[in-house]
């Protein structure tokens, strides 16, 4: 029986949920509609200051007026080199109100990438956070923007914190005709009333960029319907929430994960968003202790840091009802550690592990509360269909059969921006006439509709004899150890054959661990417990495993560095 014909996961959804349509309105109007009776409740909690939904909507309208005064209209694109502050959140929805779009760029990127993304977007206006202005200065002539608007993360802070931040973060910005402060920009709209653009389902709301782990980052086009579909999926997924709940916003807004799941989704769910403009992973325990959020969406690496945090040691975390993991696969070893941590800290609900891609507006499946199985990334979300296909023949697989994970539904991106060939590669029409996103991930589905991810097709290690090794299996085995902080498994070139690779384990130890002895112990353990063709050829200690800007292990960097590693010269005693 074909998975797509049965859709067994729908048994977990109510009849009301099954009959919920995608709203025919803009992303901004959907937030307004869902919170029209909660105008005096806090939409944002920004470093001690509450910003109500009434004030947020007022800011959106005023920002739309200011953009309209500059001539911004439906179909236009404004570039952002900024972070998740109230001004940026209001600006994204303001542009959406006008039918325009935000081209969101990571300020941490190199200037060449920033320049390319701005020029490729065709924008004539750039909004930048002040601390990123030195990068802007270097490319001002080449990007040729009519206006550069400079924001400060301090502007919406309570008075004393604002003064302190401005004293600590003095920035050298050359203001003039083409470079203005956010406050001056907002004054442009004082005598203007922006005309609201009509709803268009596939109108672009934002362009966010993929991580670039397999090449140059691609611009993912998010739309009204794709963002609203994800919001509906979470509204109807049985998340336990109450009137005064808080959501910790640590995922950056310039990613699809942050834009949709870290901003739009919690606001649609009537939850107060606590935006953290510059998230420092080591502070996650302090943030949880300070803000006592009821919902946190994170990555496996950040969750492990939370578990190791001194700030939450011995702390009752029963207020944390949703601890979700996405953005990367959590190995079963870490999940086992987390379940013990959860019990010790009185957390009622299990890990809400999910699965998604930027190309799916970030989310496609999730475990929530009673709908949970260890090791699984959950069931497909309400409006999403997930199935498994043979990557060579295109034939749909059945339950428990491994193949490429493919997804279809309204949360799909519109396309990659200005990249038709790359779009055609990932968005393909199947024999059923539907367009499916090809994830590049290998997985299977069980008869209850739970999805399991085995690893990336591109991360799959193929030996000289054709045998395929999935790194996640080794990572689960090694990651379960108490003395291991983080681990990554990569492929290194076979030194005896003209093709093929072998798996190698890279380990970051917990503080105080004897790294030499532990590497030897792990190698010997794998030799006994791993099947012959999947055994690692080496276990190497690293002081720190490098991470991408999204908090994932940077496998691309590791593979580049260790590809030619001479495992024959390595012994467990090194």
How would you sum up this structure, described in words?
By secondary structure, the protein is an alpha/beta fold. It folds into three domains: 3-18 and 226-456, 3-Layer(aba) Sandwich (Rossmann fold), CATH 3.40.50; 27-200, Rossmann fold (3-Layer(aba) Sandwich), CATH 3.40.50.980; 461-569, ANL, C-terminal domain (GMP Synthetase, Chain A, domain 3, 2-Layer Sandwich), CATH 3.30.300.30. The protein is built from 18 helices and 26 strands. The strands form six sheets. The protein has a seven-stranded mixed β-sheet with strand order 7-6-5-3-4-8-9, sandwiched between helices. It is globular. The chain starts with a helix and ends in a 12-residue tail after the last helix. The relative contact order is 0.10. The model has no long low-confidence stretch (mean pLDDT 92).
Largest sheet: 7 strands, mixed
In helices, the fraction of residues equals 25-40%
Count of DSSP-assigned helices: 18
- Stated plainly, the CATH topology of the largest domain is called Rossmann fold
Please identify the oligomeric state. single chain
Tell me, rounded to a whole number, the average pLDDT: 92
Strand runs, count: 26
CATH architecture of the largest domain: 3-Layer(aba) Sandwich
- Indicate the radius of gyration in whole angstroms: 24 Å
**Beta-strand proportion:** 15-25%
The shape is globular
Low-confidence stretches: none
User: Strands of the largest sheet, in order across it?
Assistant: 7-6-5-3-4-8-9
The count of domains is 3
User: Span from first to last CA?
Assistant: 52 Å
CATH class call of the largest domain? Alpha Beta
Please, what is the CATH homologous superfamily of the largest domain?
Answer: ANL, N-terminal domain
């Amino acid at each position: 029986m074909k998975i797509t014909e049965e859709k067994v996961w729908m048994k977990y959804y109510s009849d009301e949920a099954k009959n919920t349509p995608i709203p025919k309105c803009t992303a901004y109007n959907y937030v307004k509609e869902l919170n029209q009776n909660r105008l005096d409740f806090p939409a944002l909690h920004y470093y001690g200051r509450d910003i109500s939904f009434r004030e947020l909507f007022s800011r959106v309208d005023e920002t739309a007026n200011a953009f309209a005064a500059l001539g911004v209209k439906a179909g236009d694109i404004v570039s952002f080199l900024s972070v998740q502050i109230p001004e940026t959140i209001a600006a994204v929805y303001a542009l959406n109100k006008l039918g325009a779009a935000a081209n969101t760029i990571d300020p941490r990127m190199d200037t060449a990438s920033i320049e390319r993304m701005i020029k490729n977007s065709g924008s004539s206006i750039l909004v930048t956070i002040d601390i990123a202005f030195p990068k802007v200065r270097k490319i001002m002539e080449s990007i040729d923007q009519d206006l550069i608007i400079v924001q400060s993360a301090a502007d919406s802070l309570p008075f004393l914190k604002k003064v302190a931040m401005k004293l600590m973060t003095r920035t050298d910005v050359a203001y003039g005709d083409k470079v203005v402060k956010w406050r001056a920009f907002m004054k442009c709209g004082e005598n203007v009333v922006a005309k609201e653009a009509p709803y268009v389902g596939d109108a672009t709301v934002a362009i966010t960029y993929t991580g670039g782990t397999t090449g140059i980052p691609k611009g993912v086009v998010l739309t009204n319907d794709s963002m609203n579909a994800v919001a509906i999926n979470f509204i109807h997924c049985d998340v336990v929430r109450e009137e005064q709940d808080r959501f910790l916003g640590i995922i950056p807004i310039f990613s699809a994960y942050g834009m949709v799941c870290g901003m739009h989704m919690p606001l649609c769910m009537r939850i107060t968003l606590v935006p953290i403009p510059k998230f420092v992973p080591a502070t996650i325990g302090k943030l949880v202790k300070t803000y006592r959020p009821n919902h946190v969406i994170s990555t496996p690496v950040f969750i492990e840091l939370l578990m190791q945090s001194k700030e939450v040691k011995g702390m009752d975390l029963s207020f944390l009802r949703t601890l979700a993991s996405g953005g990367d696969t959590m190995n079963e070893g870490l999940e086992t550690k987390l379940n013990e941590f959860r019990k010790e800290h009185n957390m009622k609900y299990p890990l809400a592990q999910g699965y998604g891609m930027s190309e799916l507006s970030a989310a496609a499946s999730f475990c929530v509360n009673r709908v949970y199985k260890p090791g699984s990334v959950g069931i497909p979300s309400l409006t999403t269909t997930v199935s498994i296909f043979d990557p060579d023949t295109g034939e749909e697989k059945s339950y428990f059969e491994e193949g490429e994970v493919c997804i279809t539904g309204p949360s799909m991106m519109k396309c990659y921006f200005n990249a038709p060939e790359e779009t055609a590669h990932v968005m393909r029409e199947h024999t059923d006439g539907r367009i499916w996103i090809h994830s590049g991930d290998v997985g299977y589905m069980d008869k209850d509709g739970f999805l399991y991810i085995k690893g990336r097709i591109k991360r799959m290690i193929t030996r000289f004899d054709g045998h395929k090794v999935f790194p996640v299996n080794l990572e689960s085995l090694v990651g379960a150890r108490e003395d291991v902080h983080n681990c990554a498994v990569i492929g290194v070139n076979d030194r005896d054959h003209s093709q093929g690779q072998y798996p190698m384990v890279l380990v970051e130890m917990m503080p105080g661990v004897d790294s030499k002895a532990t590497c030897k112990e792990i190698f010997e353990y794998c030799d006994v417990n791993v099947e012959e063709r999947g055994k690692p050829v080496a276990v190497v200690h690293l002081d720190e495993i490098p991470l991408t800007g999204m908090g994932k292990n940077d496998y691309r960097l590791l593979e580049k560095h260790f590809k030619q590693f001479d495992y024959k010269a390595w012994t467990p005693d090194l």
